[in-house]
């Protein structure tokens, strides 16, 4: 077992590793075999305050540091991830039940985002804007917001912590990170260790492992952070946004989805099957972009369904450390119970199970359901597990209506033999991201990543990071003399 789970089971505040002072511990379990990995005494409101104050103190000098010097930290962090890839992969498998394939996928993207952070340090540019006033020069500076609070989820904890932490730091901010309780090491203290070893000055990045049962809204209400970057469910995101608005903070919200993968009548069916199976079942379906719904034109529905069902039935469920495993455990027993409940509800509503997986502890085998009533709430909600709903449609108009018939608008995909037909289809979908002849699960470092409707507010990646983690400041200079009316 990686030493990460013994060495990093602490808080990281003001450049120091220290135990929390809360009255209880978060127990970190391996979701596959329920082995206890670590025990972390939780941080209190006082420690959240100490973390934010440390970030606030350290940030001023960091913002004044030459950006070429700042970027060296991210170059070193990237090298460290490459050197420690095997250990980090083991930690992903152990702490969140990620398969070897999933761990490789997460680490590949994490390295890409660190590479982008290297460049991001040099990205802020100022502007000179003309003035209608004679003798006046208008300068617009792009400056750090100050301190950013980051709340990361359990499904891709290493990547999704880095995805906000690295850009926020690169752009001259201090950061306090609160990882999900189920992934305190991979999503939290491992990130702190990485940057500590990469030479990031102490105090700039702090990690508090805690729970709202202990701190309430203290993490988002605290007066120091100017931006809260949250990745998680829309229900919690709504609360985060409400609290942020009440305290005049900016929130960047990357929330849930109910993506559809659409197979039109001229699609390459075999290829669409491969894309759909990956899009639904990668990391046990615990992905915000996962294809909850697979919509198939009636003209190709029989062929697609037969091949899709056969492929899903062959997916191996089991030990995530085994390279041949495709479906590992879901994160905890409450998730497993919830997914089993979704299948039971669908069957009670009249759906037919073409594949019905069993549930053993946290191992949830894949299911494929069809014939769900068109008015079922299950077709409009996010299902965070390995359950696919197959829906047939007649023609593009009905497909567009079905894709948009959900409160979410994160991702999606369409398969067709005509690329421009696919692009025209994609433009009619109310989603932040849509893919033609591909899967629904994608992320790249310089594209605008985010959703519409209940799937979030704001964008991350590329130039969007400037909007998320910097602000603009207007400074005017009067080279002559202004005239005043009195």
From TrEMBL:
Gene3D superfamilies linked: Aldehyde Dehydrogenase, Chain A, domain 1, Aldehyde Dehydrogenase, Chain A, domain 2
Coiled-coil annotated residue ranges, if any: none
Keyword entries, A-Z: NAD, Oxidoreductase
Domain Aldehyde dehydrogenase: 26-475
Superkingdom assignment: Bacteria
Keyword Amino-acid biosynthesis appears in the UniProt entry: no
Keyword Repeat: no
MF terms in GO: oxidoreductase activity, acting on the aldehyde or oxo group of donors, NAD or NADP as acceptor
InterPro entries the UniProt entry points to: Ald_DH/histidinol_DH (IPR016161), Ald_DH_C (IPR016163), Ald_DH_CS_CYS (IPR016160), Ald_DH_CS_GLU (IPR029510), Ald_DH_N (IPR016162), Aldehyde_DH_dom (IPR015590)
Family of this protein: Belongs to the aldehyde dehydrogenase family.
Protein name (Swiss-Prot/TrEMBL): Aldehyde dehydrogenase family protein
Species per Swiss-Prot/TrEMBL record: Streptomyces parvulus
